[in-house]
């Protein structure tokens, strides 16, 4: 499981993805890889990932967020995109730049910012649950605990 | 593989998901299920789906598109959402209503309309490819053919 | 009168609905019920509400706000939706996810945030005023006091 | 039940409100009243409405849609607003001009255009159903028929 | 010259209109008049304004800003609208609710917030300058001083 | 009264301004002047306008509509801006480029497209009405006829 | 001068760039290269371009338009981006995905669609004009003819 | 190399353009010139710039940002536009007012705010690199250092 982000500063927003995967017992390889500033590093990491056992990519980026899209261009593995806010237009740019992929190269997109990062982690867990009984069980427990943790009233 | 849509009229836009999955050798159970007009049918279908062998849901809906979100609320299986246009605001409503899921219940969202439906199908194939060699091979062939099919010039 | 909200943190924004209904002499049953994280609790509460004397639902939720819509799917009673801000896109997601309901299942929608919560409470009062003389009188007094409370100048 | 619209041309979009109310057995008084071009007619109609037995207002208008808001300013009765498209910005102007009412004067807002008009009619029926057994029964039948009318598949 | 605003809290944003008119030697009658909460006060003030010597209205309001539009409905005098921010959607609602007036009843609209208030004041001065030599001279001086006040460099 | 537009193709959308001014008995000097393609013509026309008896400018332009703003920069006379649609983003670009003038140089902005052109004409009439009895009378008659022309029902 | 576009269908919208460059006497190498479907072709073309005499890239793409950005990541040469419409959200996605590049890797962005393609061609000419007298002369003539071609009136 | 901005307050946001050009060894002439408040100064500066050795303009402005467009109208030299935020709508107005130039007069537009200013500086460097070996070398070094400066992980 690779978690890529375009800048060191994105880590605070992407950490929920790693945290929730840790709860599901899934280890992550967390990297700063910019599609724009480090294209060679990106190419090398993504094309070699399958051989290193990477099954899923989670990519977080802001502004004209191209990281998830260009990752999906280089691999048939599932690519999950998390648009990050922080720009003048509050992440709407990153959302459209991530979700509006033309037909043929899919990116599974989640909500802008931390909520999206957490959900990308959970969704990656759901993919793994289809082939890994321990993740499936951990995910079921997570969901049950989540449901049980909702209080009856706000007082 | 379930393909759900909120209205019979959505089929024209969702068909690319079924078409691309057929090319990957994956059969689909295509249903009209409205989260709003047929909530009981929705509950019964989704909660019983795992037992009937459904591994992934692809949900297409327009306007205040709740279908993917309420499906994800009822199952830990991967749920893919396709926002459909046709409303006054051109599918921006369906996009935000699908992608902006709060943390805890993920929906993997794709582009508005037909391109998103096709990509949801391809992404579902990518999930299955992780556990099914024939899908993995078919997906690789699809990607190769797609690359080869791009002409060198537009003339 | 039920006031439902998707998260404990929504209470600060939804409280004006309860406050204004209290001024009109209308008691409220305030609950945290997430359409996504607690679907069973939601189904049980909404389908059993009429028998417990609930006449109107006020539902507040943020982001991909589905709470009002899925409540309206389960009951013919009036459902009032309050889109809550706090997301990256400032509640525009919640507004569109609440107001753009497809034809057939109505949700009466109010402004984003506290102003909308207050107005949902007043509107619920206006519905009850049609069958309850004391609410009608209290609402008339509220409106008169509100008009009288507007100062002539801003100095 | 008054159905007001700002222009004769709005009738095609507002007719679904009258149609669905007719199905529920509720008669409607349909009027062209512009908040901008006929303010005196508007004032007279709204302030005299309660005495003529009007219980609910449904107001449809486009562009800077003020009709619902200024109606709500003149009456404590429930006012339902339907934003109409047709402007350069596709009804987003009418939606925001209708739904974003400041706290104190509520307008219950529905989706842009025909879907919103139909839902405003259904919602008005839901209000009346609280005090009129025949409307309650007709509404229940409408909802049942609507659910039954959703086909299982789109083919 | 009337400066109307929908709420006492709008004064901070509308003050630049009064300030710039004072510099042009034009007195202002500043009032809090809500189109929604004080419709009778609004009707009385606007319809009687011409007799009291009011030549121009400047109306500032936020959210679903109807104040300028309903003022223009009641008077043939020039009405200037200033959309005010402060809502969840940052004044875009007030802008569209003010500027998108249907054909027949014009509102001259200015920028959102303080810049718009200042410009509405200057524009009112430009109208008066057409019939009042002292205002024309004051406006010319204001413009010259403004031009002279722009520094050559930002250091 | 000058009516300027950035392109010959804008005439169809700007004609309502000339038409309504003709009804008020006000003649217009209609010109194609592009702020971008004919800056010298623009400078010459605007700076010499007052001497030729021009009292008001109505400027229509689309996309990054600068015509009204740069006209206002060159004259203290009232400048009315009409944002024109036709671009990919439906005139939202022209609206913001016209209305969001920084403090100091005002442009009175009207709705996007034909409705805005008509209202700009009417507003120009309202300015002239303050110093010209015949325009004042014509405007009053226009408003009365407009009010009388609204039918009671849409049937 | 390379003109790249993501799909054969983009040619109709990108042709104005080639046309205007032809008028300036500048030849173009027009290619269909998708950042998503043909990443290897893209990498090879861009990294080898300087050696083949390419001095400037013009990249047109729609939806989540990454073509210009990933081209800029691979070359220090000037990259001009043209966002293309055709998506549900009318090219706003392509605009934000092209213009909102993070600091460090610049893309010079032009208007959505044909106008942007024409201007990208003109701008490329302006760059070349700095080092090529014949282009400078041709550009000056183009601008003069353009100015002369604006009619005085729209009639 | 001229760096123009509409207001002294824009300097903080435009400084990254001057900073990055300084790193490339390119001197800049930094000026406050408002298209609206100082049109004569603008005309004089731009039309005389080529004779003073200016080869490229970088123009930063907010709100209805006309500075880049009217500069491009007066010169065939490359004009780079940087939309600045700070308005109620977060720079979306400045972005559209800068990038949506009609065909014929190009403005190369960059991201909203500081990132856009930095990229405009880099892009100006890329233009100069085509004719100046020392800038070309400095730009290559900047890009290499930038790539090398991206850390492998965010921890």
Task: Explain what you see.
8 copies of one chain form a homooctamer. In chain A, 46% of the residues lie in helices and 14% in strands. By secondary structure, chain A is an alpha/beta fold. Chain A has a 5-stranded parallel β-sheet with strand order 2-1-3-4-5, with helices on both faces. The model of chain A has no long low-confidence stretch (mean pLDDT 97). Chains A and B meet through β5, α5 and α6 of A and β5, α5 and α6 of B.
Secondary-structure map:
The structure is a homooctamer of 155-residue chains.
Chain A: E1 2-5, H1 11-23, E2 29-32, H2 39-49, E3 57-62, H3 67-74, E4 79-84, H4 92-99, E5 108-109, H5 114-129, H6 133-148
Parallel strand pairs in A: 1-2, 1-3, 3-4, 4-5
Helix residue percentage of chain A:
40-55%
CATH architecture heading of chain A: 3-Layer(aba) Sandwich
Largest sheet of chain A: 5 strands, parallel
Integer tally of domains of chain A: 1
CATH topology of chain A: Rossmann fold
- Unreliable stretches of chain A, pLDDT < 50, 5 or more residues? none
Q: Say how many strands of chain A there are.
A: 5
Strand order of the largest sheet of chain A: 2-1-3-4-5
Please indicate the percent range of residues of chain A in DSSP E strands (runs of 2 or more): 5-15%
The N- to C-terminal Cα distance of chain A equals 40 Å
Kindly name the structural category of chain A: alpha/beta
Give the oligomeric state: homooctamer
Radius of gyration of chain A, whole Å: 16 Å
- Structural shape of chain A: globular
Number of discrete helical segments of chain A: 6
């Amino acid at each position: 499981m690779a978690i890529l982000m375009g800048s060191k500063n994105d880590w605070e927003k992407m950490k929920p993805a790693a945290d929730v995967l840790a709860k599901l017992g899934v280890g992550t390889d967390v990297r700063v890889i910019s599609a724009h500033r480090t294209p060679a590093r990106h190419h090398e990491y993504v094309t070699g990932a399958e051989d290193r056992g990477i099954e899923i990519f989670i990519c977080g980026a802001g502004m004209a967020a191209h990281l998830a899209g260009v990752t999906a261009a280089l691999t048939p593995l599932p690519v999950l995109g998390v648009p990050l806010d922080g720009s003048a237009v509050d992440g709407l740019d990153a959302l459209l730049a991530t979700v509006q992929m033309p037909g043929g190269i899919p990116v599974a997109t989640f909500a802008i910012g931390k909520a999206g990062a957490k959900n990308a982690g959970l969704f990656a867990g759901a993919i793994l649950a289809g082939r890994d009984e321990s993740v499936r069980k951990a995910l079921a427990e997570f969901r049950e605990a989540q449901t049980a943790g909702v209080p009856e009233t706000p007082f």
